[in-house]
Amino acid sequence: MENSNESRMTALEESVGAAIRELRLKEGLTIAEVSELAGISRGMLSKIETGSTMAGMDTLARIARALGVAMSVLFSKYDAETSTAQHVRKGAGMEVVRRGTKSGHTYHLLAYGQGAVKLFEPFLITMEDDSQRYPTFQHPGTEFLYMLSGCIAYRSGNQTYVLEPGDSLTFDGKVAHGPEKLLKFPIKFLSVIVYPHRAE
Fold it and tell me: Which part of the chain is the HTH cro/C1-type domain (predicted)?
């Protein structure tokens, strides 16, 4: 874990350093000129640019001012490189309350923070033995189910499908759907809801 954090910090230092160097060269400024404008030593600026040291926020703010950019610009390369993937470790999905929670469904959201408009929601759903009648669901978008364990009779519209490990089912979320019968425990399946894309 420590190595992972260290490598992340090294990547951040190198990315910020590269952004500073790129901006400095674009403006046709020397290390001496920027270090004077920012009020830091040339040696320090050189180390920051090569990624061998990480400056504090105050120093980075002064460098950004010297280069005439917002401080966030110094981190833009790192954000672009790291924001495309989200790693959620086993058991670390966020447990959320959804319609069906009261009926014994446990929902673990496997990806989150996707911005203002949700593109998709992937859930790991666990179902307990429960004598209650299970609810039906309707929502925008397309839903994809993939069975991991157990066996379930799942209804979409007026059709019922028996799903076993390795089976999948894809359907229009606007059509009423939901579990009809829980046939074999433990029941676990992935549910991925892909929402319709709204034109800008």
Answer: 20-74
Asked whether the predicted pLDDT for residue 87 surpasses 90, the reply is no
Cα(106)–Cα(96) distance, integer angstroms: 8
What is the rounded distance in angstroms from the CA atom of residue 72 to the CA atom of residue 70? 5
* Range picked from 14-18, 39-43, 81-85, 107-111 for highest mean pLDDT: 39-43
Please state the φ and ψ torsions of residue 194, each to the nearest 5 degrees.
-105, 120
For residue 190, give every residue at least 6 positions away whose Cβ sits within 8 Å of its Cβ, in sequence order, or none: 110, 122, 123, 124, 125, 144, 145, 146, 148
Q: Where, residue-wise, is CATH 2.60.120.10 in the chain? A: 94-194
Question: What does the mean pLDDT of the chain come to?
Answer: 83
CATH architecture of 2-82: Orthogonal Bundle (1.10)
